[in-house]
Each structure stands twice: as C-alpha cells, then as structure tokens.
Amino acid sequence: MTGPDRTTPDGPSNTPSSDGRGHLTLDRTVTDGGRRSLNPTPASGVLNDHMTNHADHITAMTDAWTRLTGSVLRGAMAANTAALSAMETATEPNEGVGPSDAQPGVDSVLYDDGDWLSRRSVETRDEITVGDSAVFEKTLTEENVRAFADASGDTNRLHLDDEFAEGTRFGGRIVHGTLVSGLISAALARLPGVTIYLSQDMEFRAPVSIGDRVRATVEVVEDLGNDQFRLKTLVTGEDGDRTLIDGEAVVIIDDVPE
Predict the structure, then answer these.
(1) For 167-190, how does the pLDDT look when each residue is reduced to its tens digit (9 = 90+)?
(2) Are strands 194-204 and 112-113 parallel, antiparallel or unpaired?
(3) Where do the domains of the chain lie, and which CATH numbers do they carry?
(4) Do strands 194-204 and 22-24 pair parallel, antiparallel, or not at all (unpaired)?
(5) How many of the other CB atoms lie within 10 Å of CB of 190?
(6) What CA–CA distance (Å, rounded) separates 46 from 102?
(7) Per-residue pLDDT for 255 more than 80?
(8) Phi, psi torsion values for 249, nearest 5 degrees
(9) Does residue 158 have a pLDDT over 60?
C-alpha cells in the first residue's frame, strides 16, 4: 500500500476510497600449546602413541574452550557497557548506530534504537489528558522498505524497482504508504501505558522518498471515557515543514501490567 499525493493517487498498489481517506483498523593448528613434555618415545610403542595423541586432543579442546569463554565474557562486558552508555544518552540520535543496536526505551516499549528520536509530554498513565502528546522520528531506509515488502507481501515495483519507478509520476521509488503510517503506531506506543488501536483514519498528502527522515506526532484531543482517547495523528518531514499524512486515531490506553 502506497501513500499517494493527495491530488494524484498512487499506482496499482493503492486505490483511495471515494472520500479520499484511507481506513486502517487496526531482528591452531595445535602445536601442543608448548607442552612438548609429552613427546612420545619411539620405543614406547603403539599404546604410548595413543595416550600422547589423546592428551594432545584434550589440550587442544581445553585451549579452545578457554579462548571461547574469554570471548564470551568480553562480549558480555561490552554489551553491559553499551547499555549503560545508552541510558546516559537517552534516545537522542546517535550517528552510525544501526537497527541491530538496541537501547533501553521508555517503560511502554521493549527497546529503542540510536537512529530513533522520541519524546512525550506525560510520564504516567493516570496523568494523560487532553493536550498531551508523543513524538517518534526515524529515517526510512532501503532496508526498511525491503523488509516491509517481504513482511507484508506488498512487492509493488514502485517501491522496489528503480528503472520501473523512474517512469512513474513520482520519478523514482517511494516508501510504502503503510510503512510511513506505521510511525504513528510507534508514536502511540511511546505514550505511558499499553496503547491498543481501535481505529485510524488517515489522508496521504505527499510521498516519502527512500532515505527521508520523517516524524510522527500524536496529540490527545478528547478523553472518551472507559480508558479510550481520540488523538490527532500527523506525519511530517523531519523539520515539520511538509505534511505527509494527516488523520485521527481512537485508542484504549491500559495500565502497564505489574
């Protein structure tokens, strides 16, 4: 599914509804280790040769296990050091850090990433009220697009084939519209508590090119009671100067389980 320009609908993978709005309901060669004291004596015979070879084999296994254990311990220490550093830098962008480098996030998400930026205006579920908001920002990469195409089955050539996409109205490949809108879900997840989608209305205003950095902002506009909230949802360019998706969501926000 591709987010088309508002006035020019997307190609074959996205057909807008009659009112122009879409609806979603919502990875050694061993040399005896210097232990030449076990050199066999030619007169020892076959038995001594066998015992010597067996001792060499045990020595090799011991050396290999020692090296492996040391490597594992060094890796664990490095991981702990990285986690502590991440806690100190919160979720500010960290140039060069890839999506495999998980970092601690707020209590409502399992992890964050160095390329992501998130913030929220409220810290506890009970304090959520009209006007509270959350923001999530990331760069949409080539890897993101291809992973989404594989996960969703949307292998529209507009997103994956450079030569094909150059002949379209966009003049090149663009990010799947549903992938872009997924940042709204990411922003909702940064609100305190457990956020559960009930509905999402959205209008795609402009395409997103691969490599663009985009920002999703969600803001509570109405407390509907029974733990339900209506929120304005907006996806813009990194600087907020270009609206990409405009819409509205209704969610349930439960307490985080103990």
Answers:
(1) 999 999 999 999 999 999 999 999
(2) unpaired
(3) 22-26+101-254 (3.10.129.10), 35-87 (no CATH)
(4) antiparallel
(5) 23
(6) 56
(7) yes
(8) -125, 150
(9) yes
